[in-house]
Amino acid sequence: MLCSMLLIFMFLVLGIHVVFIYINLAMLFTLWSKPSFRHTARYILFAHMLFNDTIHLAITLTLYMLGHFHLFVVRVACAFMVLLSSCTFVNAPLNLAVMSLERYTAVCFPLRHSELATPGRTQLAVGLVWALGVINVLIDVCALFLTEPSFFLSPALCTIEHLQTGFNAFCFVAVSLIIIYTYIAIIVTARSASSDKTKASKAHKTVLLHLVQLGLLLSSFLYAPIESALASVGSTTIFIDLRYLNFLFLIILPRCLSPLIYGLRDDAVRPLHIGKRSTCTFRKVIPNFQKII
Fold it and tell me: Domain G-protein coupled receptors family 1 profile: where (predicted)?
């Protein structure tokens, strides 16, 4: 019974990862196929969100499969995967902060938006996001490499619990403050600058969307405390079942839903994405009847 449940969970996790990685790659291809998207700061940041979450899902799936089958890998490979996992974990809220600042500039400083939010500066901001994401883990990795280089050549069981919660918590608090400040300013500016209630309503919905995205990302912090609480459960079978559900709902689904919700909500991306899928699925075929002599 236990083996069958583990097998079901494995295929469930594998299926969810494959489906949402495909969706992310499809939206990323849609953005890359249009030159107007490649030169717009908002969509450069959205493409980075898709790219970052796709890497995170791929690394998470790899770590899950290694842990599921109890496979040992060389520590340097484990360190590389954990480094990528930690970077992409931190990059997600930082990217939301940059997206918030870009929208804040567009609404509150419309005359300077084209000057400030250039493609080059947007790419520089993306590079800064990766620098902040990598520095926390890279310091630990470099220190360990200098003091004990043979550590990375020995085999180890690589799992996903190697996240730096202290630094991550600081990043999430800072991002929360940035999002709340920028979007309150957007709402105030939109309502005072124009009597158009549609613009203010759209800004308010954007606030809620980014807060929902941040909330989805914050839910992953509950994984470790909940797992510790589940460890006190007497039954091993119940613990394993609840642990997989905890992993599914707090680690996987938040990363899957956030870019999907944002992409389907965007008025420019949604028609292209849905249109391509429907064209491939529901192409109308008109027969050509000719008179046969």
Answer: 23-262
Let me know if 142 is exposed, middle or buried by CB neighbors in 10 A (0-12, 13-18, 19+): exposed
* Cα–Cα distance, 154 to 168 (Å, whole number): 28
| Domain encompassing residue 195 | 2-263
Three-state DSSP at 73 gives strand
**Domains in the chain: how many in total?**
1
Confidence of residue 218 (pLDDT cuts 50, 70, 90): confident
CA distance 280 to 293: 36
CA angle 276, 205, 197 (to 5 degrees): 110
CA distance 226 to 239: 11
Compute the distance between CA of residue 102 and CA of residue 178 in angstroms, rounded to an integer: 12
Write the DSSP symbol of residue 267. Answer: T
Which of 53-62, 67-76, 283-292 shows the highest mean pLDDT?
A: 53-62
* Alpha helices (H) along the chain: 2-32, 35-38, 41-68, 75-108, 110-116, 119-147, 165-193, 197-218, 223-230, 236-247, 253-265, 269-281
Give the separation between CA 152 and CA 146, rounded to whole angstroms.
11
Provide the 8-state DSSP code for 118: -
What local confidence, expressed as pLDDT, does residue 293 receive? 36
Q: Where residue 59 sits, what CATH number does that domain have?
A: 1.20.1070.10
Q: Would 103 be classed as within a structural domain?
A: yes
- Average of per-residue pLDDT across 240-247: 78
